[in-house]
Amino acid sequence: MIRLEKDEGIWRAVIDRPEKANSLTGAMLAELAGIAEAAAGGDARALVITGTGKVFSAGADLDEARAGLATSDLWERLSGAVARLPCLTVAALNGTLAGGAMGMALACDLRVAVEGAKFFYPVMRLGFLPQPSDPGRLRALVGPARAKMILMAGARIEAAEALDWGLVDRVVPAAMLAGTVAALVADVQGAAPAHVAAIKAMI
Predict the structure, then answer these.
(1) For the domain 2-202, what is the CATH code?
(2) Mean pLDDT by 10 residues, the chain (203 residues)
(3) Residue 35: how many CB atoms within 10 A of its CB?
(4) Parallel, antiparallel, or unpaired for β 170-172 and 157-158?
(5) DSSP symbol at 131
(6) pTM above the 0.85 mark?
(7) What is the Cα–Cα distance from 65 to 166, expressed in whole angstroms?
(8) Where are the alpha helices (DSSP H) in the chain?
C-alpha cells in the first residue's frame, strides 16, 4: 500500500490505499519511515510524499488506532526520518490531510496542496497528544495562536487559508499538482547530492 518510484534521483513515496482514505497502518508507517531512512544513504536529491485518490491521508487506520497505533512511536520515527534528510523533501498533498499524517507533511521542506484540500488534527477531541515534534514544527510554520487553533480548538483549515497561514507553500488545481512538484524538484534533480545537502544545511 506504499509504492516507491525512483526517477534519476527523485524518490516518490505514494500512499496507495484510496478505498480507506489512505489511512495508515503500522506496517505502512514503518515502510514510509524505511524509505526516508534509505533515502538518507542513497542517491536521492528529493523525496516526494504523495497519495492516490482525493485524500492525502486520513491519519491512522481506525482499527489499529484503537489497538494502540494512535500513540505509537512509528509516527515520530517517520517524521524524524523525513526531517533529517539532507535532500529536498516535498509533501504533494493530493487532498485532505488529517490527524497523525500531519507529522510527515510538517517535517517536509515544502508543502504543495490541491484546491479543496482540508487540514485538521483532532487530538483534543479524540483525547490523544500530538506526536512530540509536531507542535513545534506547526508553530514554526503558522505561529503559536494558529497552532493552538488547530491542535486545541479543532479548527478545520481550508486550502486557501492554509496558504495564507503558511501551513502550505502553494495551492494548485489537482491537474497541476504533478507538474508543479516536478518544477520544484527540477534544479535538485540536476545537482550532485552533496550540493543539495550543503545548501539545505546552510538554510
Answers:
(1) 3.90.226.10
(2) 96 98 98 97 94 96 91 96 98 97 98 98 92 97 98 97 98 98 97 95 96
(3) 21
(4) unpaired
(5) P
(6) yes
(7) 29
(8) 26-40, 62-66, 74-84, 102-107, 123-126, 134-142, 144-151, 159-165, 177-189, 193-202
In angstroms, rounded to a whole number, what is the distance separating the alpha carbons of residues 22 and 112?
Answer: 18
- Grid coordinates belonging to 10: 527523485
H or E stretch at 67: none
Q: What is residue 42's predicted lDDT score, i.e. its pLDDT?
A: 80
In this structure, what C-alpha cell is assigned to residue 78?
A: 517517520
CA 130 to chain centre: 15
What is the identity of the amino acid at 49? I
Q: Give me the pLDDT at residue 79, please.
A: 98
What is the Cβ-side half-sphere exposure of residue 137, based on CA atoms within 13 angstroms?
A: 22
As a whole number of angstroms, the distance between CA 121 and CA 25 comes to 17
**DSSP strand pairing (157-158 vs 118-120):** antiparallel
Three cell numbers written together for 141: 510554520
H/E element, 97: strand 96-98
Question: Which cell numbers hold the place of 199?
Answer: 545548501
Cα→Cα distances 51→132, 142, 145, Å:
24, 24, 29
Domain ranges for the chain, please list them. Answer: 2-202
Joined grid coordinates for residue 28: 505502512
Q: Which helix (H) or strand (E) holds 14?
A: strand 10-15
For 99, which DSSP code? G
Q: Can you read off the three cell numbers belonging to residue 200?
A: 539545505
